[in-house]
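Risk register update: the risk that structure generation would not scale has been downgraded. Supporting records follow, first protein first.
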Amino acid sequence: MDYPLLAEAAAPAAGTTQLVVAAVVSIVLIVVLIIWARMHPFFALMLGSATMAVAANIGFEDSFASFSTGLGATVGGVGVLIVLGAVIGRFLTESGGADQIVDTILAKTPARRLPWAMAFAAFIIGIPLFFEVGVVLLIPIVMLVAKRAKLPVILVGIPALAGLSALHGLVPPHPGPLIAIDALGANLGLTLALGLAVAVPTVIVAGPLLARPMAAWVPIAAPEKLLGPADREHPGRRPSFAIALSVVLLPVLLMLMMTAVEATGLDGTPVGAVLVFIGTPLQALLITALYAMWALGLALGRSAGEVADETGAAFAPIASILLIVGAGGGFKTTLVDSGVGEVIGTGIAGSGMPLLLAGWLVAVVIRIATGSATVATITAAGIMTPLVGELTGSHVALMVLAIGAGSVFLSHVNDAGFWLVKEYFGMTVGQTFKTWSLMECAVSVVGLAGVLGLSLVV
């Protein structure tokens, strides 16, 4: 996944064969350095980026320019969201608020249905939220549910991730679908309705159903580094379930209001402008973090000094996550700037295959090559725009969904989201491929199947 800060892909820096070979070599190098040389992912991603840049004729003197730009953009976008989410999560867990939510979930839901409950929660929360925002909000809940229910974290984590990922790729107002809707001239309401119809079975298959074999392959417990011991005592008063849940739902409410204001054209009014401002991800999470400090700190009898100490304690566990996610963004930007995705996608679009399948495949290839769902969507939509003139309105909407499904295929080492999930869940690179990457493939393929199925009846 990626935060929508990237511009369109640059013009190709070399020939098609050279770019493809350079991309493959750089990705293999990163995997080898991490798995066999035991190098920290941050340095492996730096070396992989430099290799890609030089092999793609970007030049020695500029070999780290794209990497630095991408790292800064990722840390400045996703990184700030991760920091704010870590603060919210810290107050939820240390105040006992997350325990209250988990106690209620466990009391109301049989253990065998917890994966379904997490998928449903992620689906609802994920409608207005960017993927990264949903992850940082749900991670404390997922970890505690797994710990308290004594279940593998993958069993409850994958359904939550599937819910967020499917919404991210298929349903407006997420940036990818909106980009494609604008480029292809699709109807927003129709795309939203069809997107939800495709997303529901996609989440079911890629989430709760797929999570069971994955949990057997990777039977790991929730990591201690983010939550601490499961049996720790919470000092002072414990927040009510309603207060704890309000912290989780506040950014959802703020972003929903922003979406409603923009959809009704009221964003030009004074009140509408304010709602749009506070509903953007950064402002929404900042407001929520400040609210958490009060509701889960000061209001429970903690002093201002204790609240400040708790806030500072939230930063240490995510330092490595920030650096690795930032480096993943740097490598992604190096690939985007080389133009590798654009040259491959153009060739596929001209192959003569069915248009919906071609749109999906173009997005898949660009996604695999660059690691960016947003760049895959931008480029694929641009390539397919001249080809959709003869399609009906419903099939133009389905083209948006086909591109969206393709844009989330096979998250791997060039995607900052890969490292985000790896570090949060405490997995190895191999375990992340067997769970997160496979889940993303399932979301993409099942999403395509839903699109092709709907194309026969609409």
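Supporting record for the second protein:
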Amino acid sequence: MITLPNECYYEIFNNLCHDYKNLFSCALVNRQWCRIIIPILWRKPNLKDIRVIRIFLLTLNENELAPLIPFKINFPNHPKPLFEYTNYITSINNSLHDGVMNWLVYEGFKMHAAPDVESSLIAMILRTSENLKSLIINEIICNQLVFENLYENTTVLSISLCKIRDDYKSKRK
């Protein structure tokens, strides 16, 4: 049996980068394929998906969890993921806000926690990602924790701060 070099598999799987369902199925074939496919799947994850938000929450450290204590949020208590998925992310956009809101609604938590949850997630992604190049965030979530991690991150090439969205203003009251 002839095996292909990993570079060939990468090119093949990279052509399926928008076909998440089949790419995920291929990741289950064997460890070699999984190691190649996971970075492709997580380059640009669907940030609106609450399952992605749950995985992100498992990666928060004590400093990132501390601002969330007053909200009495019950975080997932699953084991840490096998991969550090956030390491593969290349860009973050405003859809993270939608994912956080979806997760809060699904879990039955108050919406006024959204900026703090989003801020902690951004700080964690900045801390863990070695491939993050582009960051688009709402200005309301910029705090010391985010700026400290942004200062430490050497991979970000582009940052855009957006104006406060109306739904943030109304839900923070």
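The CA atoms of residues 130 and 154 lie 8 Å apart. On this basis the risk owner (M.S.) recommends closing the item.
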